[in-house]
Structures are given as structure tokens and as C-alpha cells.
Amino acid sequence: MAMGKRGMEQQGQLWIPTDQVAKGPGHPFYRKLNEVLAAGREVHDPQAHGGPDACGDRQPHGGRVSFDRFAEDLCRPFYAQVGRPGIPPGVYFRMLLIGYFEGIDSERGIDWRCSDSLTLRQFLGYSLTDATPDHSTLCTIRQRIDLETHRAVFAWVLALVADSGLLKSQTLGIDATTLEANAAMRSIVRNDTGEGYEQFLTGLAQASGITTPTREDLAKLDKSRKNKASNDDWHNPNDPDAKITKMKDGRTHLAHKAEHATDLQTGAIVAVTLQPADRDDHQSVEHTVEEAFETLLDVGEHGGQVALPREVVADKGYHGNGVCVGLESMGLRTYLSEPARGRRVWTDRKSGHVKSAERDAVYGNRRRIRGRRGKALLRRRGELVERPFAHCYETGGMRRTHLRGHANILKRLLVHTAGFNLALVLRRVHGLGKPRTLQDGLKRLLGGLLGQLRALWKLLTAARSLGGLLGANIAPIRRAALRCAAA
């Protein structure tokens, strides 16, 4: 075969037959995902998602309702009745799901990936001659559709998880992680004077006697100061919701706090909240538990068979007298790891009043975590609660946010975690949790086959060596026997 040469300039054709247009083979994962979304859910109330069609006629939505039909009915109040048709809501939510499945953190990256991939074009329903939505369109739609609608989409996906038998919701595991904000530490300003950080240091240096301080002088002065990055004194004007905190890797950065409520029986994410990064765990847990209750009630309204939580499991960062009392007042049994605080005193020093409610709640929690079930739940928490963080923020690409404001970030986060729950359904139904699963499965299959071949080769080599050794020992005996027989 002769070597071909790449043409430097090509003249485009004026007309191209449709049967000659390039078509991608399509990824099996996205085909299965579209099948799951198209199958939708069974709606028992005929008026639950009814709405006018394109002609304005009322269409009762009985039977099964697809995801696109549900999203269109849900987002119809945010669009005008007349005018040029916009991007379908189902396409918008699918593009955000692609961000989870492909591990893309920014909307610009999602835009580029969708326009470049034939498989993702088929997943979105766009042909080769159609232009996919760009990042500015995604931003416009995100600002148009409110936060409650994104919560409703998350609840619909969770109802789909419940229909698949993957939502028990009686035991919740609570944990939080930090997300790096789209704001720089160099941009922080003082809360009282509005001075920038370098301007503030320059003023301190001049007050100490250095008339024209250099950068080295400022760095030396800043190194010796205490409490130099406090949220009480500084904020970022570009993203006021971002707070100064220490990240998991030890860096000090502006960040947000994402907290999950996870079903400890199946691993499904029941609720997700976004809170200030400087808020302690024992201050944020009740808000996340309340969000989990509200989400499960919404799932019940969608027709999902769910049970309300009865138990809460968390690490020692969530332990506190108020937390134990508050969760117990909500009818929940707590399994909170207790830090070593020494001997507890339950009598108020000023009034002499005995804190019996706090004492009983803390001792009851201590008794439960020391039991067999408590130890098993705490081990399971480390397995099932930490895993969604790795899927959503490490391989899912959301460890660093590219949006500003808690409302905007939470919209993206709700659909992102809904993608994680969809992966559970796909793994149960089709055995595929992510697009890379086929590649990883092929690697495991080839690796297992190679391991079996290696084991067989070792066995044959050992048998050959053993046969040679036995043959060498038996040969002299056989020759002596033959001489004796001849004599």
C-alpha cells in the first residue's frame, strides 16, 4: 500500500448528500442514558404534569412521563408563549450532566466538548449541521431558571432512583467538603476601610517607620502578623459568598462548603447543600438534614415510594450537645463519633441547673456508637459517604468552581449530583455507571485473561521441570534393570 499525503488546502463542496455525512458510532453508555431518560417515570396523577403543547392545547400527562416532557412542563413559566424557540430545557440539563460524566468543570469546557464530539451531539439530539448551545447560552438559561426548578429536577432523578429500588433513606450519612472558589486571595479587601491587602500592608510598614517598603519588607511584615486572614476583617468583592478557609491539602484559599446527606444503605445522595466555608459542621448539619426531609417529601409527591430518615451518622466534627439534642428533637437517632473531651460536667456553673436533656442525648449517642450496629454504621459511613466526593469533585471535575454566588453554584451542583444518582440507576440496570466503565471493564477482562495465562504458564513450567527431574532419577535404575535381565 502506498503512503498517502495530507492535502494542505481543500475546496469545500457546495452540496453534500445526507448519506455521506460522517456519523459517529455512538457511545453505548449515552445510548443507555437516553433510553433511561426517555422511559421516564410512571405518573399516577393524570394532572400531575399536564401542560399545553406547542399549539396551546391541554395535554394530560398520564402514564409514563419522559424526562424531557417533565423538564419542559417545569420550565414553561420561564419562557414566553410566542417568539423564536429557545434551547429545550432537556438539552440544558443534559449538558450539565455531561459535565459530571466527562469530568468537565467549566461551562466553556462543556460547550467545546459537546460541539466537538459526534457521540455527545447524538446524545443531545443535534445533527452534524446543527450548532450546539455555547457557554453564553448555558449561562443565560441558568440565570433564567430559578433554584427551585433545579431542586425539582434533582428530586425527579431521586424518584427515579427510588423506582429502581436504590433509595431506602432510613439511615443518612452526613459529611462535607470544601470547593475552591472562583476568587483570588490577592483580591480581598478590608471590611471596614475597603483597602486592598497590599495597600493595607504598605500602611502598616509606613506606620512602623519604613517610608518606601519593598516587596521583601511587606512579605517579612506579613509573615510575623497573627490572624492575618480572618473573615471578620476581609472579604472578596467579586464573590462575597466565598470565605477564607484552609483546604484539604493545607492551602489557605477562598472556598465554599458542600455538604451531602447520603443513604447509607444504597449510597444515593439524598440532599446537597452549599454553605459558607467558615461555618462549622455542627452549625450546618441541621440545615442539611432539613433539606433531606424536604427532598424526600418532594420525591413522595412525584410518586416515589420513600421512607423518612430515622438515623443520622456523622464523624466527630458534627458532635456537640446542641446537635445531639436538636437531632433527637427531630425524632432521629444519632450515631456521631465523639471526640475525647475528658470528664463532662453537666451542671451550669452560674445557675446550678443540671443540663439533663443534653446529658441524656450525649450519653445515648455514646451508648449507640459503642454497640455493634453503631460501629458497623460508622465503618459504612467512611465507605459510602466519602465515595460520592471522589466521583463528584475529583473525577467529576467540580473541586474548583467557575461560577460565583451560592445560588449559581448550587444550581450546577444539584444537577451534578443528580448525575451521580443517575449513574447508580444505570449501574443497576445496564451495569454501566460512567462512560469510562466500558474501557475499565475491558482492561479488567484483559488483565484477568493475562493473569490466567501467566498462571497456566507457571504450572506448565513447573510440571516440565518436575518431569525432567523424575526422568533423570529413573534412567540409571532402568539401565541397571535391563543389564540384570540380560545376564
Would you write up a description of this structure?
The chain has 487 residues and is an alpha+beta fold. Among the domains are: 23-145, no CATH class; 166-184 and 254-405, no CATH class; 189-228, no CATH class. The protein has 16 helices and 12 strands. Strands 5, 8, 9, 10, 11 and 12 form a 6-stranded mixed beta sheet that branches. It has a two-stranded antiparallel sheet with strand order 1-4. α4 (107-116) packs across α6. It is globular and about 105 Å long.
Mind summarizing the main beta sheet?
Answer: 6 strands, mixed
In percent, how much strand structure appears in the residues? 5-15%
Which word captures the global form? globular
Structural class: alpha+beta
Series of secondary-structure elements, N-terminal to C-terminal:
HEEEEHHHHHHEEHHEEEEHEHEHHHHH
Q: How many β-strand stretches?
A: 12
The CA-CA distance between the termini, in Å, is 73 Å
Q: Helical proportion?
A: 40-55%
On the 0 to 100 scale, the average pLDDT is 85
Number of helices: 16
- Which regions contain 5 or more consecutive residues with pLDDT less than 50? 46-61
Q: Outline of this structure?
A:
The chain is an alpha+beta fold and 487 residues long. It is built from 16 helices and twelve strands. Among the domains are: 123 residues, no CATH class; 171 residues, no CATH class; 40 residues, no CATH class.
